[in-house]
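Notes on consecutive records. When two proteins share a document, each keeps its own sequence and its own token line. Never mix them. Below: protein one.
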Amino acid sequence: MTLAYPLWLLLFLPLAWLIRRRESGISIRMPQTNSPVDAPSLRTRIRSKLPWMRWLALALLVLAMARPQRKWEEEKIKADALDIVLSLDISPSMLSRDFEPDRLSVAKRVAAEFVAKRPHDRIGLVAFSAEAFTQCPLTTDRRVVQTFINELAVGRLEDGTAIGMGLATAVNRLKDSPSRSKIVVLLTDGENNSGYIAPLKAAEIAQTLGIRVYTVGIGTEGVVMSPAQRNSDGSYSFAPRFMKFDTQLLEEIAAATGGKFYRAFSERDLEAIYAEIDRLEKTKIEISTVRRTTDYFHWFIGVAVVLLLMEVLGTWGILRSATP
């Protein structure tokens, strides 16, 4: 609550009260007929307080002249948002321990941080191994997307790496999008060895639909502690395995769609990659601020009028004192 004008008029109220007190004559209080002389009646006590209503009413009128008001601002945001689908590999090799604790855990954390930085975009999530499925459709609810990212786990699909299926499923989520900017961020750690849709065919469809694909290869090449066997309880046994990477395929996918290929050998590399994608794909935002003011002076005037009426009615009405 603020005041449009200063309250310097309130300084005159104490002065007016002193002048009024000096000019007031000597009054004689007449006791009521059946009341003891030494104990003023309730009526007398109430009547003695009536002048305070007048001073309180004057104070409220001065406050009303100062125009109490509340100022607030409303921001209207017009965003030319992007539609983004994250397509993440959840094949067993994503449990390889060249990242701490493993590739998938790091990929999930960095992807969730990327989502947190895109408040105005619609974001979806696709997971793939030997096949692919939509984990989360396009939505502006960042918390929902982050929840689905955190729930990604290895073992839900048949083992394998179907890059073409992962890309095609992401493209399918974007094909009917009205957004002018449509993007797929595809992250994988291996070679394409499964699926009935060729990766380059999926890239060709993406290019036709105007969808840019950023491909991210995660993991180191060489001997890495990686899942070697799936146990009966669903867990994996780890052993040193030689890992190789098909960078050429990911480069061709990115080039065909106007995107870019990235290679992440460490967690820091992956963070830098997502930060660069965030910079490259900026959402255009227009913010217009509307300022409004709500006045409350009429409430003060209303209360002041009621107090003055009560004072007048009390002084000249039912509480009127006897005159000598």
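Protein two starts on the next line and is unrelated to protein one.
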Amino acid sequence: MVRFKSEVEASDALLFVTPEYSRSIPAVLKNAIEWGSRPWGKTSWPNKPAAVTGTSPGAIGAAVVQQHLKSVLGAQGLHLLGGEAYITFKPDLVDADNNVADESVRGFLKAFIDNFSAFASRFAATPASRAAA
């Protein structure tokens, strides 16, 4: 837990990539969020820029879990990137070398990461945000 908390605290931004488990957050992810918020009064989360994405084989591509996770993370004081990044997982989405094979999905993900990078850099450039973290 000490290593996890120190790595969260040392990070400039956090990208949460999650599958959807019964329309909710996987238990291990919820547990990690709880670890980061403990002990009381020493949370590791506030003022960190963060983004959420994920995938599922369902037509709405993990939309429900992402909304649930954003609610949980918002309550922890993270600054969340707006917008959605829902990916419907299909057998041909990832090739044998673990690369995104679909050019349109790859372009979408690149734009999402570029947007997240710009969002996170706004917090790093602000002296008040560093002091508050």
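For the record: The chain has one domain: 2-132.
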